[in-house]
Amino acid sequence: MSKRTPLNVRYRHALPKKGIVDPFLEERLKLKELRDKDISVKLERETYIREEDSEILDDNGHLINIETLQLQPSEVFFLHFALQATDVYQNSIKLSTSDLLSTLWPSRLADDKFILNYIVYHHYRSLGWCVRSGIKFGTDWLLYKRGPPFHHAEFTLLILPNYKDDVKNSNIAKDYVWLSSLNRVVSSVRKNLVLVFLDVPDQSAIDDAKSVSEILNLYKIHEVLYRRWIPNKNRD
């Protein structure tokens, strides 16, 4: 094997052997001298409080914490009924589970918006999902694996009541244009649209139910994952 010839690398501008001269040394020393000086500037200004800000300050001028935790009706009832982690008071009176349900669900209708939302909320919370409102995407709920601080929502839920009466189903049916428009909005934020069909029981069954558990068992959930069909990507 032939020996490799060693490479000789030379700089175009040779440095002096006795040291490197810094042409900006004097300038850097002046900047260092300015930084080391203790420069103090006294600002004299008046401090005044606006009238609209006086309500959020106490007598000592400290800011009052006015932030409150806001929960949706489904979240309140789940914490009270399913987890038994909260007590709810109304006019300083502690509400029982039945009283709270009557307050949140006064109509007692089988297709009331509250009970439909709670059935779906309870179902997915029981499966371990973190459920949040999906109103900003035009849907009912969002599903997070852990929560908004950790992950983006992977699925968004749209609740569609399914009646035994075909006439009612035809009155609330959505056409393809509406569904495609909603899915386009959801897809633009990288989420999957899930259509949650909720079988609505007869009103007589709701009236005869004596407990919350009996009411929950009257509803059935069917899930459909909706995705837009693209010919270029979904060919056989």
TrEMBL record:
Active site: 144, 152, 191
Keyword annotations of the record: Endonuclease, Hydrolase, Lyase, Nuclease, tRNA processing
Sequence ranges assigned to domain tRNA intron endonuclease catalytic in this UniProt record: 114-199
Gene Ontology CC terms: cytoplasm; tRNA-intron endonuclease complex
Coiled coil: none
Residues annotated as transmembrane: none
Enzyme Commission code: 4.6.1.16
Molecular function per GO: nucleic acid binding; tRNA-intron lyase activity
GO BP term (any one): tRNA-type intron splice site recognition and cleavage
InterPro entries, per database record: tRNA_endonuc-like_dom_sf (IPR011856), tRNA_intron_Endo_cat-like_sf (IPR036167), tRNA_intron_Endonuc_cat-like (IPR006677), tRNA_splic (IPR006676), tRNA_splic_SEN2 (IPR016589)
Catalytic activity: pretRNA = a 3'-half-tRNA molecule with a 5'-OH end + a 5'-half-tRNA molecule with a 2',3'-cyclic phosphate end + an intron with a 2',3'-cyclic phosphate and a 5'-hydroxyl terminus
Keyword field contains Lyase: yes
Class of enzymatic activity (EC top level): lyase
Record family assignment: Belongs to the tRNA-intron endonuclease family.
Protein name according to UniProt: tRNA-intron lyase
Source organism: Cyberlindnera fabianii (Yeast)
